[in-house]
Specification:
With 322 residues, the chain is of the alpha/beta class. The chain has one domain: TIM Barrel (Alpha-Beta Barrel), CATH 3.20.20. The chain has eleven helices and ten strands. The strands form two sheets. The chain has an eight-stranded parallel β-sheet with strand order 3-4-5-6-7-8-9-10. Strands 1-2 form a two-stranded antiparallel sheet. Helix 2 packs across helix 3. The protein binds zinc ion. The site of zinc ion has 5 residues, from loops. Zinc ion (ZN) binds next to loops.
């Protein structure tokens, strides 16, 4: 083992869940990108999803747990519907480990005058660092701190529409804390550009997770990204629009067969309540440990690789542990 990996291993941290630090090896089956609470935001785009039926969400999380799910990353950052108090209560009431995000989503999910999109880099960086180290903004008066466990950023379809000061701040906060950055891409657009951007900001590839990449199921691109060292998140399993039988499923087979099984994290990204089983009769959160796992087994993918796809790959990176 060389000096660099020794240093990295020493730096391996615990993962910051909404109820406190947990060892990454205890996360188990982990949905790498989901949404379990979204308040209505006055003034936001009418298409902005809302998830606020507490008891049904608790039942949904319990079903996730009964099916073998253990943890999930909540990808709704502050200001566009996150409520850390609800996330903590949902975690306690369901037994599911929840990891909250700081950062920013697409602009259309916020009120038109939200501070984050005109703030200086320093102000946004302070906000991100405080949420990672001390407490989420809405939880500062709580007895128990609720911290963010990763940084979410959202790219718009065009680079210059993405808030540059906020992106700079995210790079700075990631460099300072070692936190994982989950990057929303518009159907995989700008994936190459954002990797170069963070490389120029000295963020190592293992700190980067590119989301929704199976909406651009280009094996050549995915294998290059995997070789570079960034994580690819896939979540179109229950979105017929993206033809999962022609897109994500063959892509998983090809990536695994090519030895990139440790570079992928699976998720169901159920921001729309129609996707929830308890609220909208959809596939539900339990579909990841139940249906997706069954399909991976059917494909005769090795158990070790399945465990990576369903949690260990994202868990290690959340902990800064290669
Ligand atoms: Zn999402």
């Amino acid at each position: 083992m060389n000096q660099t990996s020794d240093n990295l291993r020493e730096k391996a941290r615990s993962v910051q869940s909404v109820t406190g630090p947990v060892d990454h090896t205890s996360l188990g089956v982990t949905d790498a990108h989901n949404h379990i609470w979204i308040d209505a935001i006055p003034g936001a785009d009418p298409s902005a999803p809302v998830l606020n039926e507490y008891q049904k969400i608790v039942s949904e999380l319990k079903a996730y747990r009964s099916a073998g799910g253990n943890s999930l990353l909540d990808c709704q950052p502050g200001g566009c519907g996150r409520d850390g108090r609800k996330l903590a209560a949902l975690s306690i009431d369901s037994g599911v480990t929840i990891i909250a995000s700081t950062g920013f989503h697409r602009r259309k999910y916020y009120p038109p005058d939200h501070w984050l999109f005109t703030a200086s880099e320093n102000r946004v960086a302070d906000y991100l660092l405080t949420e990672l180290r001390d407490s989420l903004k809405e939880c500062r008066a709580e007895k128990e701190p609720v911290r963010a466990g990763f940084i979410k950023v959202a790219l718009e379809g065009e680079w210059n529409q993405t808030p540059q000061a906020a992106l700079e701040a995210a790079a700075g906060a990631a460099a300072e804390t070692g936190a994982l950055i989950e990057i929303h891409t518009e159907k995989g657009t700008l994936a190459e550009k954002v990797l170069i951007y963070f490389e120029d900001h000295h963020i190592p590839p293992w700190q980067l997770c590119l989301c929704h990449m199976d909406k651009r199921p280009d094996f050549g691109l995915h294998s290059e990204i995997a070789k570079y060292g960034a994580l690819l998140e896939y979540d179109t399993f229950f979105r017929p629009k993206y033809k999962p039988e022609e897109g994500v499923w063959p892509l998983i087979s090809q990536m695994v067969e090519s030895g990139f099984g440790t570079s992928i994290a699976l998720a169901t990204d159920m921001a729309e309540k129609e996707m929830y089983e308890t609220i909208g009769n959809g596939p539900g959160l339990a579909s990841l440990p139940r249906d997706i796992r069954a399909r991976l087994e059917e494909k005769q993918i090795a158990e070790k690789i399945i465990r990576g796809l369903l949690g260990e790959n994202i868990a290690r990176r959340l902990a800064g542990n290669l």
